[in-house]
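Write out this protein's structure.
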Amino acid sequence: MASNRKTPPLIAISMGDPAGIGAEVILKSAAALAHVRGAPALVVVGDLKLMAETAWRLHSVPEPCEWRVGQTLAPRGSLGVAQVGNLAALARRPGNPSRDGGDASFHYVTAGAKMVLRGQADALVTAPISKQWWDRAGHDFPGHSELLARIGRTRRWRMMFAGDELKIALVTVHVGLARVSRMITRRAVLDTIGLIRDHMRSRLGVKRPRIAVLGFNPHAGENGLFGDEEIRAIAPAIRAAQRAGIDAVGPLAPDTAFVRSAGKFAFDAAVAMYHDQGLIALKTLEFDRAVNVTLGIPFIRTSPDHGTAFDLAGKGRANPSSMLAAIEYAAAAVEGRAPITANRDG
């Protein structure tokens, strides 16, 4: 659904683990968007001192300044930072993750999500966190999505990964392959189809998206010869989706589902049964442009599809392309249109 907004959306960006590359890729992305007409306004939810230290090491990036909820946006040439807590000096050392840093990154995400839920920002972009250091800090969540689902009070959510050409929602995510078969149920597949269809319609303006649904087994099971997941769960879910008016096709053989005819895919989005089944194709095709999107929660959340890169932190060499794509995607979703990309070569 197209938006009638007259002002650019305000995107809150949680800073991520302070020992990682989050601050750097945020600043580089802000610099890339500074002269783009109609670019979204940005506010970082994190630590002002760390953002300022990172800006000092870089060149030609906006100057971080303090920002409080309710005030006007940061002056031109600067980047507003909503301070959360008081980050210890040791936690600000690039490439040296700590319990304090893990704890701080958890609270940055929580504060950013609550800003969006209260209407103080239009969408949330999350810079990378370390699941290991969240756990060491006492926060028992496998990652962003589980925390955001808790904050948003929803049980029906999925991870979607989006690039310029491919958009893929996952029925299962971070589980071992031995467990995947048991988790493929008619309801799980049908919910995933419905969530990605709803997202494509309401957030990207695709009126009747065509959804390709992959099988689980080689050759999509070959009529039960290689397994029954397609017969007992996947095909029934596709039929139910079709009865509900969704243009869903499949189960498709996973090894040929992503073959392009005349340079284009025969669908608008796809549903994969497990993590690597979908993401090998996506990351091979557009690794630096991929965006993680959480479907089903009551606000827009995107994230760059890479980690904290502690080994790169503080060296000024982090590629901002995926963070920039995440910001662009969030802004487009707020406005109900397909993303328009800026220059991502920085």
